[in-house]
Amino acid sequence: EVARGCRWGCRFCLVCSINRPYRTADAGRVIELIGQRPETAGSVGLVGANLCDHPELERILSHVAGTGLQLGASSLRLETLDERILQLLRACKVRTVTLAPEAAATGLLASIGKRCDPELLAGTARLVGKAGFEQLKLYYMVGLPGEEAPDRQALVEQVREIRAVLPDRVGLKVSINPFIPKPQTRMQDEPMAGASSIKAAIRQVRRGLADLKGPGVRLQAGAVAESLAQAVISQGDRRLAGAIERACLRGERFLDTLADVGVDTAELLHRKRDPGGTHPWRVVETKI
Question: Is 146 left (phi over 0), alpha (psi -120 to 50) or beta?
Fold first, then answer.
């Protein structure tokens, strides 16, 4: 773990909310721990919300490259990723660069607290191609509060632009995930889009990218029911205990057990909560 917390403050992000203040591990200590790895280890993972924020990241990456280990790295932040870091990541045998634009429309970006210039993404994609990576992976959310069809069309156009600037040898994988309001975040009281709206959003993105020729785009979208289950567990209270017990011990489908234990998913997930109300998680200690 090279850093804890995050200094960017995105409104939907749990890491930004509960891991304050942002702090980094000493590079010398990180290098020391890498040296204590088992002899059979062929890879090492650096854990942190945004590795590029670490002030001594180049030193750490240079050490990893010198050991011959393959590096596992989490998603990177556009604003702090440059050509030098990309070169070092490639020297560490990283094959895929993962970025999380989350949205393409400037209005949506502002609403979630991610004030990143969309033009940065195309420039970074060019650098990824130049550095010799095998794949670029992008994470987006759909179903954000206030999202409309033109916002999703902006996402489609952004992905098409990225595909156009990447060399054919570089794969492009796009992961589409529904927005889930998380406890302890500044967006905890926002409503989640309904299943039909989420499916319609994913269909729109698929249709918008379906005609791409050549290497194309690999689009990944998880099961909507799974996202709804995650949201219920995220937002629910003690009544969920019975539902979880039935799903685990009796093998019943979790979402099908909710009505029997008194959980109304429409009331729980698809309306805006009163910010002044009592949240089930207010008793949870979150300082990490």
Answer: left
Q: Which amino acid is at 48?
A: G
Q: Are 210 and 152 in contact (CB under 8 A)?
A: no
Distances (CA, A) of 91 to 38, 61, 111, 112: 22, 8, 37, 34
Number of Cβ atoms within 10 Å of the Cβ of 144:
26
Two tokens, residue 67: 């050991």
Query: Within 10 Å of residue 62's Cβ, how many Cβ atoms?
Result: 14
- Cα 198 to Cα 6: distance, rounded to the nearest angstrom: 28
In whole angstroms, give the CA distance from residue 23 to residue 36: 23
User: Which residues pair with residue 108 across a beta bridge?
Assistant: none
Q: How is residue 234 written in tokens?
A: 């995220």
Q: Are 244 and 255 in contact (CB under 8 A)?
A: no
Segment-wise mean pLDDT, segments of 10 residues, the chain, 288 residues: 90 88 94 94 92 94 95 87 95 95 94 85 95 96 96 97 95 96 94 96 96 89 94 94 94 94 93 88 78
Give the CA distances from residue 21 to residues 9, 76, 80, in Å, rounded to whole numbers and listed in that order. 11, 19, 19
- In sequence order, which residues have a C-beta less than 8 Å from that of residue 250 and are 6 or more positions away? none
pTM above 0.70, yes or no: yes
Which amino acid is located at 257 in the chain?
T
- Give which of 66, 125, 57, 60 is closest to 91, Cα–Cα: 66
